[in-house]
Amino acid sequence: MKLLNLPAAWKGNDLISSPYWNYRFTPEEVAEIEAGIHTLKSSGPQAIKFNQLRKTLEAVSEELENGRGAVLLKGIPVHKYSEEELAEVYLTLCKQMGSPVRESNSDFDAPIREKRQFITYIRAEAADSSQEGKQSNDAFKFHCDRCDVNSLLCVRQARVGGENRLASAITIYNEMLQSHPEIAQELFKDIPFFFEGENSWTSYPLWCIHKGKFTTQYSSAYVRLSQLVAGAPRLTEKQKQGLDLLEEIGLKVGMMLRLEPGDWLLTNNHVIYHARSSWKIESGEYDRLLLRLWYSPFNSRELPDTHAFRTMWGSVEAGKPRGGFMPNHPTPPNQAIREPLSETESYWLAQYMKGRWRGVDQIK
């Protein structure tokens, strides 16, 4: 193992030096977004023509995959349009850069999910995360979503709280390698994850370097949930220490930001961890709402061709749709599942949802 000197190995406010951090859309680009909304109403997405915006999004894709791995775009006129209109144009914008993939949601098997399998409305539906099927305003520790790129569009922000944190996984690796090399090495070994597949768990290396590119996949909640599943491997003491160090170092070397309405945050999940603080639940203009979309970029990296990676991602080929919810379902991850799930799929999905919503301390 050696230190990695890559653009995505940033600390603190280093992102500010990126041309696509706090990038404000030009009047011409905003006009293209607004024209897109009107075209969607009259003619559908196939009739939309992005000119300058297309060039900007190509540069954004390059920055996400081969640059710092995080981009903050500003100035989408969210106050002028309905949530439905914003969701439609948001989906169209992301499709300029890649293939949207299915997201997880508690009512996944309900008919309404056919339309919304690719966009989740992130809002507080309950103050208590133990309410099954309800989104809460809980704080989240550093983690990755199971997709190449995580995209968040801020429609409304809370009056108090709701900040996001970002940290470079590569910087965390570099720091741990220098201070605790024996623990850093342990995180390259397979660790157990709570999973929607058979047996409710799978194993996966938290860190990996493949063909010169670093990749990570991590959620402390799903790792801890796996420890409550019979038959899942037990974490080693060094792995436990490594997970604690990951959070500790991330808080030191990362950054906090507060999204404002019209902000569009994109992060490459292979190199960036994200977290959030809790927020005060209010109604009206302070009813915090983010639109989340997961996608596989056209320029995404190749992943190792191993059982662990294929289980977690479905496909490991560069530039292909992968990840998302149920990546190994017969329906490709960039297509909505319309048919009823099989009896086996429904059973394991129910087990997964029960564990996910009841929480680490509630599973029996």
Please characterize this protein's 3D structure.
The chain has ten helices and 15 strands. With 364 residues, the chain is α+β, with helices and mostly antiparallel strands. The protein has a single domain (12-358), classed as Double-stranded beta-helix (4-Layer Sandwich), CATH 3.60.130.10. Strands 1, 2, 3, 4, 6, 13 and 15 form a seven-stranded mixed beta sheet that branches. A four-stranded antiparallel beta sheet has the order 5-14-7-12. The chain has a two-stranded antiparallel ribbon with strand order 8-9. α1 (27-42) packs across α3 and α5 crosses α8 (237-253). The longest helix is centred in the last third of the chain and has 17 residues, at 237-253. The N and C termini lie far apart (40 Å).
Q: What is the element string, with H for helices and E for strands?
A: EHHEHEHEEEEHHEEEEHHEEEEHH
Work out the count of structural domains: 1
**Residue-averaged pLDDT, rounded?**
91
Q: Please identify, by name, the CATH architecture.
A: 4-Layer Sandwich
> Which segments are poorly predicted (pLDDT under 50) over 5 or more consecutive residues?
none
- CATH class, named Alpha Beta
What's the SSE blueprint?
Layout: E1 21-24, H1 27-42, H2 52-66, E2 70-74, H3 83-95, E3 98-101, H4 113-116, E4 120-122, E5 140-143, E6 149-156, E7 164-168, H5 169-179, H6 181-186, E8 190-194, E9 201-205, E10 207-210, E11 213-216, H7 220-226, H8 237-253, E12 255-257, E13 264-268, E14 272-276, E15 289-297, H9 307-313, H10 343-358
Parallel strand pairs: 1-2
Antiparallel strand pairs: 2-13, 3-15, 4-15, 5-14, 6-13, 6-15, 7-12, 7-14, 8-9, 10-11
Helix pairs in contact: 1-3, 5-8
